[in-house]
């Protein structure tokens, strides 16, 4: 019998692991299964725009308020924010491309300009023009790109722990190349989803952001992370992201921007808000004591009050 080489042996072990793993962990989240008790499910709909099938939630009446979540999240991130804002606004929130229950496009569609164009196509299909907008983490970058590209013209923008600047960590130059390699392999997202099926893993990840949210909220993150399609989209997003190009244009973002920063945020340094305020023509900083990267999920009522006051 021919002896297996190291590479062949490793592949055999991985093949056995994949064969033994539950099939439910592979592929994209299913709205009938993973979304059966989705937050604000009653206002969910599916819309085709820009070549994708989008999951979007629209609630309330009044000026349009656009909400954009961050990497690895979905509309559940706004579960408590959306109903509060809907008392005064027509609130629109979607799952970004490849996230949650929205289709994943090619690499160009997962880039920052590509996502901006995708969200704009969705708004066009809905015939909605945002008067105000708020983005969490990478969602703030999507909104900034849309404003700079003339895709939306809101009166004001709120950045919630916004990821608008390139990471200054020593290993940051390696992140995109590694993410590109991992994103091309279906094995990496699958193995991550297997690991993330343990609720304790997701709980540690969330605490690593400096946030402690309720068990229900953490459960939605765990549910999505356990699907390789969702995990792969987060990798693809990081692999195709270019914040340096956005940073070079931020001085032209001439609209009122509220830079909300959780003082306990371990993902985006709160000092980034101060750096941004020095660049943005009409940027203003608000620090929220005792809160981390998911500040809007930790204290939704307080966050909405801040957003409403600023946009007034």
From the N-terminal CA to the C-terminal CA, the straight-line distance is 76 Å
* CATH first level: Alpha Beta
The beta-strand count equals 8
Number of helices: 13
CATH superfamily: Alpha/Beta hydrolase fold, catalytic domain
Q: Note the overall shape.
A: globular
The largest sheet is:
8 strands, mixed
Overall average pLDDT:
86
Q: What is the CATH architecture descriptor? A: 3-Layer(aba) Sandwich
Number of domains: 1
Written account of the structure:
This protein has 312 residues and is of the alpha/beta class. The protein has one domain: 3-Layer(aba) Sandwich (Rossmann fold), CATH 3.40.50.1820. The protein has 13 helices and eight strands. The chain has helices at 6-20, 81-85, 112-126, 138-148, 172-184, 187-196, 199-207, 215-225, 228-239, 243-247, 271-277, 295-298, 300-311, and strands at 44-49, 52-59, 64-68, 90-94, 132-136, 156-160, 257-262, 283-288. It has an eight-stranded mixed β-sheet, with helices on both faces. Helix 7 crosses helix 8. The longest helix is centred in the first third of the chain and has 15 residues, at 6-20. The protein is globular, with a radius of gyration of 19 Å.
